[in-house]
């Protein structure tokens, strides 16, 4: 299923999206419900976009990179940058579009970035897209000003799950995201896709900045976060992402997210 990102950018809407929006001069806040398999075809916006998935999962392809994102990250997509989105988990996409003159200060905001989704910024985004009448125009302007202020101090996050560009390595990565508990090692995966293990290993390092094993741990934690958010128990999630014991899973999760699975799940 394919759709066009809001606001319209020249390709027709062809997917099921339930949108609530709040419009101001040069600012639009939109909440879009997406299904698993929904895609936003390659497109550009005249405005900057800040995108966030509080639940669900999104693959964002921008320029030569593809990132697999969940609720811990905001995606910053500057005006005029061609990008596409695919959703591998049903959920909600929250976006704020604003004129480039309103973006945070600094040349780094001229480029696509991934920044951390802190609790205050996330609450502001939710408030901007409340159903019904939502906040008043004056409050929406203040919320946007606060959001820009918070973004100006946000550092780029490098702990995202990047996907390899090499199609054979990408196929391995996709299989592991779909079934992170698969215990096969690099030699086994290389044989399955018909290439040498060194070729796959080089592709992971070159395209993601991580070795295959480092990437797999990161992918397991990434999928685990989504399963926990959907209400699965810690014990069940540990097994599904390849851990023999809950204690081993909890330690790995805490090393990745800085908190335990139960506390992560309790976050709003």
TrEMBL record:
<dbReference type="InterPro" id="IPR018062">
    <property type="entry name" value="HTH_AraC-typ_CS"/>
</dbReference>
<dbReference type="InterPro" id="IPR020449">
    <property type="entry name" value="Tscrpt_reg_AraC-type_HTH"/>
</dbReference>
<protein>
    <submittedName>
        <fullName>AraC family transcriptional regulator</fullName>
    </submittedName>
</protein>
<dbReference type="InterPro" id="IPR009057">
    <property type="entry name" value="Homeodomain-like_sf"/>
</dbReference>
<dbReference type="Pfam" id="PF02311">
    <property type="entry name" value="AraC_binding"/>
</dbReference>
<keyword id="KW-0238">DNA-binding</keyword>
<keyword id="KW-0805">Transcription regulation</keyword>
<feature type="domain" description="HTH araC/xylS-type">
    <location>
        <begin position="170"/>
        <end position="267"/>
    </location>
</feature>
<keyword id="KW-0804">Transcription</keyword>
<dbReference type="InterPro" id="IPR014710">
    <property type="entry name" value="RmlC-like_jellyroll"/>
</dbReference>
<dbReference type="InterPro" id="IPR018060">
    <property type="entry name" value="HTH_AraC"/>
</dbReference>
<dbReference type="InterPro" id="IPR011051">
    <property type="entry name" value="RmlC_Cupin_sf"/>
</dbReference>
<dbReference type="Pfam" id="PF12833">
    <property type="entry name" value="HTH_18"/>
</dbReference>
<dbReference type="InterPro" id="IPR003313">
    <property type="entry name" value="AraC-bd"/>
</dbReference>
């Amino acid at each position: 299923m394919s759709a066009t990102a809001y606001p319209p950018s020249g390709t027709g809407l062809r997917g099921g999206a339930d949108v609530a929006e709040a419009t101001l001069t040069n600012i639009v806040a939109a909440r879009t419900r997406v299904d698993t398999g929904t895609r936003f075809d390659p497109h550009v916006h005249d405005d900057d976009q800040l995108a966030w998935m509080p639940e669900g999962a999104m693959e964002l392809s921008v320029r030569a990179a593809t990132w697999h994102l969940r609720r811990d990250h905001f995606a910053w997509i500057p005006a005029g940058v061609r990008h596409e989105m695919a959703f591998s988990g049903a959920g909600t996409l929250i976006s704020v579009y604003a004129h480039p003159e309103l973006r945070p200060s600094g040349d780094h905001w001229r480029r696509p970035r991934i920044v951390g989704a802190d609790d205050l910024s996330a609450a502001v985004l939710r408030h901007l897209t409340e159903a019904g009448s939502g906040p008043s125009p004056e409050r929406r302007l203040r919320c946007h000003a606060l959001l820009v202020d918070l973004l100006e101090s946000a550092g780029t996050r490098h702990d995202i799950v990047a996907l390899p560009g090499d199609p054979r390595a990408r196929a391995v990565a996709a299989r592991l995201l779909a079934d992170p508990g698969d215990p096969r090692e690099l030699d086994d995966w290389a044989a399955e896709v018909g290439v040498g293990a060194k070729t796959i290993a080089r592709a992971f390092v070159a395209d993601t900045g991580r070795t295959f094993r480092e990437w797999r741990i990161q992918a397991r934690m990434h999928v685990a976060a989504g399963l926990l958010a959907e209400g699965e128990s810690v014990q069940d999630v540990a097994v599904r992402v390849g851990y023999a014991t809950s204690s081993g899973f909890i330690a790995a999760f805490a090393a990745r997210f800085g908190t335990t699975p139960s506390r992560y799940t309790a976050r709003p």
